[in-house]
Design goal:
heterodimer; A: 109 residues; alpha/beta; 5-stranded mixed sheet; 4 helices; globular; B: 324 residues; 7-stranded mixed sheet; 5-stranded parallel sheet; 19 strands
Chain lengths: 109, 324
C-alpha cells in the first residue's frame, strides 16, 4: 500500500523504521482516544499527497506497549518523525492539517 | 439547493451538541446549512466539542445504559449530514458582522474577501477548559501534564496523579483515572466541592481518591517530565510538595468568543448575551444567533446546549422568512 498508512508493532518496529529510505511519521494512538481518531483521515491525506517523500505509520500503544515505553510516550496522539531509524522530531496532541503540514514541512523534501 | 448565489442561508460556527442540533433542524428545514466544525486538537476546542474528551455520558436522555461522549457526537454529526448539512473540518479565523450577508473567513484572516457569506450566522463555538497558566505546566504538556484524561490515563498505571478542581468535570476525571492510577489526589481551592451530589458520593467513596482542601497548584516540578507539584494552602500560604507524575486540570471553562470581540455583546466574563432581538437566541446583531455553552455559563449541559441549538435554528429560519 504505497499511498496508505502502514501498521507497526513491537515486533516489526525496528526493522521497518530502519529500512525506510524516507522519513517516517509514526502516529502513536489507541482505540479509546477521541483526538487520535480525528487526525487519522488527515494523516491518510498527508501520506497520499506526499507519497515517496514521507511515510506515515501507526502504532497502537495498547497492543504495543514496549515501543511506546521506549520512546516515553505519555500522551496520545503523539507523532514522532524518524529518519535513518532515529527519532528527530516529536509532536504532541491532535492538530489540524495546516498546522501538521507546517511542522512536518522540513522533513518532507 | 446548497447555496443562494454564493451566499449561504445559515452558517453554523462550531459543532458540539448546540451546533450540530442547529444543523439537524436547519437542514430539515431545507436551509442547507454550512457547519464550520473546527479543527482537531487535544483540548475541548475541537470538532464535537467538550464531549469528545469524555467517556460515559449518563445523563443524556434516550440512552438508558449511557453512551460514550465521542460516539454521541459522531451520531449527532451523522444525523446532521443525513439531512444535507455541509460539514467542513475547518476553523473560522475572522467574522465580519457589520453588514449582510455576513462574512466568515477560514485560514488567512487578512484576505480581502471572506471565504463564506451567510444571511444568518449561528454561533456555537462553545467553551474550552482553563489551564493553570503556569510556565512549567506548558513546558511539561505531554510529559505528565495532560489535557485529555481519557487519552492519557492509560500511561499512568500504578502512578500517583493530581487532579485540580472541584466541579463535576474534576470528579469525573478523578474517578476515571482511578482505573489506572495508584492514587488520585484532588487539589481544590475551597473546603467543599461544587460538584453534583452523585459525583461527590462516588468520589468520596473511592478509596484511591484523597482530597487536599483550600489549596492551589503553585508550580509544576520536573526537568523532562512531571515529578511533583508545589501546592500552596490559600489560608496559611504554606507551600508543600506533592509527589506526582501526572497532572490533570479541570478548573472551569472560558467561552470561545475571541472571534466576536467588538462585534457581539458579551458579559464581563466573555459569554455572549442572547435574547436581544427576535427570539431567545438572538444577539445584538440581526440575523446572528448564539446557542450552547458560548452563551450559557449556568447550565452547561449537553442537553441544554442541544435544546438551545434547536431554538437557534428555529429563530434563524423565522428570521429568514421575514427578511428575505
Amino acid at each position: 500500500m504505497a499511498d496508505g498508512i502502514s501498521t507497526l508493532t513491537d515486533t516489526t518496529f525496528d526493522e521497518e523504521i530502519g529500512a525506510a529510505g524516507e522519513p517516517v511519521v509514526v502516529d502513536f494512538w489507541a482505540e479509546w482516544c477521541g483526538p487520535c481518531k480525528m487526525i487519522t483521515p488527515i494523516l491518510e491525506e498527508i501520506a497520499a499527497e506526499h507519497a515517496g517523500k514521507v511515510k506515515v505509520a501507526k502504532l497502537n500503544v495498547d497492543d504495543n506497549p514496549n515501543v511506546a515505553r521506549r520512546f516515553e510516550v505519555m500522551s496520545i496522539p503523539t507523532l514522532i518523525v524518524f529518519r535513518d531509524g532515529q527519532p528527530i522530531h516529536r509532536m504532541i496532541g491532535a492538530k489540524g492539517k495546516g498546522q501538521l503540514l507546517q511542522e512536518l514541512s522540513e522533513f518532507i523534501v | 439547493m446548497a447555496v443562494n448565489g454564493d451566499v449561504r442561508n445559515v452558517i453554523i460556527i462550531g459543532s458540539g451538541p448546540a451546533g450540530l442540533t442547529a444543523a439537524i433542524y436547519s437542514a430539515r428545514a431545507n436551509l442547507a446549512p454550512l457547519v464550520l466544525e473546527g479543527e482537531p486538537s487535544s483540548t475541548s476546542d475541537q470538532p464535537g466539542g467538550q464531549l469528545m474528551l469524555t467517556t460515559d455520558v449518563e445523563n443524556y436522555p434516550g440512552f438508558p445504559q449511557g453512551i460514550l461522549g465521542p460516539q454521541l457526537m459522531l451520531d449527532f454529526r451523522e444525523q446532521a449530514a443525513r439531512f444535507g448539512a455541509e460539514l467542513q473540518t475547518v476553523k473560522a479565523s475572522k467574522v465580519d458582522l457589520s453588514s449582510r450577508p455576513y462574512g466568515v473567513w477560514v485560514g488567512d484572516p487578512n484576505t480581502p474577501e471572506p471565504t463564506y457569506r451567510g444571511d444568518t450566522i449561528i454561533v456555537s463555538t462553545g467553551a474550552q477548559a482553563l489551564m493553570l497558566d503556569l510556565p512549567n505546566e506548558q513546558r511539561l504538556l505531554g510529559y505528565g501534564v495532560s489535557t485529555c484524561a481519557t487519552c492519557d490515563g492509560f500511561f499512568f498505571r500504578d502512578q500517583d496523579i493530581v487532579v485540580v478542581g472541584g466541579g463535576d468535570s474534576a470528579l469525573e476525571e478523578a474517578i476515571f483515572l482511578t482505573k489506572f492510577a495508584r492514587s488520585v489526589t484532588l487539589v481544590h481551592r475551597r473546603d467543599q466541592l461544587r460538584a453534583s451530589k452523585i459525583m461527590q458520593d462516588r468520589a468520596t467513596a473511592n478509596p484511591k481518591i484523597r482530597f487536599v482542601w483550600n489549596s492551589v497548584v503553585h508550580d509544576v516540578i520536573g526537568d523532562s517530565k512531571v515529578e511533583g507539584l508545589h501546592v500552596r494552602n490559600v489560608l496559611t500560604d504554606e507551600v508543600t510538595t506533592l509527589d506526582a507524575t501526572g497532572l490533570f486540570v479541570a478548573i472551569g471553562h472560558v467561552p470561545n468568543t475571541d472571534l466576536f470581540k467588538g462585534q457581539l455583546d458579551m458579559e464581563d466574563n466573555g459569554y455572549l448575551i442572547t435574547g436581544q432581538g427576535e427570539g431567545a437566541t438572538s444577539t445584538n446583531v440581526e440575523g446572528v444567533f448564539a446557542c450552547g455553552d458560548v452563551q450559557d455559563h449556568v447550565y452547561r449541559q449537553a442537553i441544554t446546549a442541544a435544546g438551545s441549538g434547536c431554538m437557534a435554528a428555529i429563530d434563524a429560519e423565522r428570521w429568514l422568512e421575514h427578511h428575505s
